[in-house]
Amino acid sequence: MNRPLPAALAGDALASSRFAVPGMRCAGCISKLETGLAAVPGVAAARVNFTAKQVSISHEPGISVPALVKAFADIGFDASPIADALTGADGEARALVKALAVAGFAAMNVMLLSVSVWSGAGGLTRDLFHWLSAMIALPTVAYAGQPFFRSAARALKAGHTNMDVPISIGVTLATALSLFETITHGDHAYFDSAVMLLFFLLAGRWLDAVMRDRARDGVSALLKHMAAGALVIDDDGSSHWLKAADLQPGMTMLVAAGERLAADGLIVEGYSHFDQSLITGEAMPVAIGPGGQVLAGTLNSGDAVTVAITAAGADTSIADIARLMQDAGQGRSRYVRIADRAARLYAPAVHALALASFIGWMLAGAGWHEALLIAVAVLIITCPCALGLAVPAAQIVASGALMRVGVLVKDGSALERLAEADCAVFDKTGTLTLGSPEPLDLHLLSPHAAGIALALAQCSRHPLSEALRRALTAAGTMPARVSLISETPGEGLTGQFQGKIVRLGRPKTTATTDIAAALQIGDDREQLIRFADPLRPDVAATLGRLAGMGLAARILSGDRAAPVAAVGTALGIPAEGGLDPSGKLARIWALSHQGRRVLMVGDGLNDGPALAAGHVSMAPASAADASQNAADAVFLGTSLAPVATAVAVARATQAIVRQNFTLAIAYNVIAVPLAIAGLVTPLIAALAMSGSSIIVIANALRLKRAAK
Amino acid sequence: MNGILFLIPIALGLGLLGLFAFFWAVGRGQFDDLDGAALRILINDEEPRDGP
Prior knowledge:
Number of strands of chain B: 0
Oligomer: heterodimer
CATH topology of the domain at 409-435 and 536-648 in chain A: Rossmann fold
Helix content of chain A: 40-55%
Strand content of chain A: 15-25%
Number of helices of chain A: 25
Helix content of chain B: 55-70%
Strand content of chain B: under 5%
Radius of gyration of chain B: 19 Å
Shape of chain A: elongated
CATH class of the domain at 409-435 and 536-648 in chain A: Alpha Beta
Strand order of the largest sheet of chain A: 14-26-25-24-15-22-23
Largest sheet of chain B: none
């Protein structure tokens, strides 16, 4: 997004990396990040983009990505490196805004000249003004018309038409004919219409691009770190950092606590807990020791382990899921946007009409010159100026309204498909539930015991410890002075408090089937702290609202059948558990074959293929990055309510789009007969064009409050 | 009439100047971080900083 800074410090070529830093909130954060990072040895400069919540760093190539992440952590920020593939080409909006500026400049100046011609300038003055208009309009059409010409050429080459075909033909013909008129000292030149048409259409196109960029920035800023590489140990014991793509089976990698695995492998040394929720959707980490198999993409939440790589890159199980996702997403790429569906009917009708008026006037005895002039007037007046704005204007206003309530919609087609959804499928863990365990029995702990529990819990990165620490800190507990704390993976934490041994860890009595931790102080009886994964707030209300809009909900989960069935019964919707990614995919496909349009809501990587296969899909911001990428929309916060809001807003948007189409057609019904009758002068064309565009935009602005 | 011969090129020239200024600003990425620019004014950097 930002260019690399002027390399005043650059001796050698500097590398540059980008990081998502969702935690920046104020001017203090910007200055802290920029000065703090610049002070790190080897970093030339750091530049914050606050809008995108990203930091780009130019640094010496020798500095590894984890070292930079650590530098962020040292100044108090969580940072995730952003892969190059996700940063995308953000030149599109920039190219469009330049074209828009050129068209706007030309439209204003040509209009200024045209007004004097319309007010009666004649003879030499009119010719002079027409020539000046031509000098402004010709380069403008050549430059600002390119997005339309290119898209039209692509469509024609592929053997179909889109909105850009009539636009390109209309603009080109109008310009060519006006040039001819200018050379032959004619009365009417349509340079102002051609340029203004480009200006309005570019405005629509630019809004569309801005919407996509904005959502993508938001999404990539939320992305969590997917291992970009690993620390590989050589035979001689030395270690170096390798990118994930360069890892090979047979290498040995060192996976530190809190790091994600970059490849599949077998544990050689060490014993740790692995958070496999990314792959299986199961919230609880699994303990794995030497000889056990670990998968790429899982998070090592215990101790450092060394892993012998068995599969890397495209052969890992995570890559299998990615392939499944890619195949599943192909159905969606066949979706045709409403504007293009309209164009399929519109373009032939417009061309037939223009051709018919040309032939009609020729037969009626007008010269070919006059007949052509009228045909061009028909093309200009019917040119989908309002149509080109009708859809993007409504969609960007709606997506802005949704963004304020915490839903990032990726593009306009997502809004259209969201409005069409007629049934909803939810994942359980992390989607209907929060996906992180919450302690239940805190009120049973004495303040004394709570202090000890907090002191122990804050020394571990085990998810239960972290949940306990969050809950106790929120309750205002102060940690007790526990010394000599040590952690045994799979067992728990022990320490000394006032001469007594205290322990927080795996319960010795397995009387309960719930997830639980035990706290033992000295020789007292151990106290159980049970954990549960609570439902998101508003789940029942959201499902009710969806049902009210005609979307029947169901649960498809990869979790064990019993807890899934329990949640289903509690919410009163059908539920199915124990499904692997391809199982979920098959269920979604079965629904689409019945003609249902599925809204898939899921978070784990195991939901990825289902998200890609659904007619439309949403993911919470806590979802795996691949799932966020597969989803059409991402919702923030703990509440599920934005899902229902998004569907409601999408439907309101479709209603406005349909109204706008009706307005545009009504305008054509009035204007086209005038054009065919040969009554449309450039002045009338200009008025009609701007008038209809303004009406359509004003109508779209009504969506501003749609999300409330 | 003669006035127009001077005024039109001047008007177009000024307009073009504005257009090029806008192109320059877009090319320099001045519209990439609109929220950040609003906050940067608040940063306290009175003490001389190292480097450029």
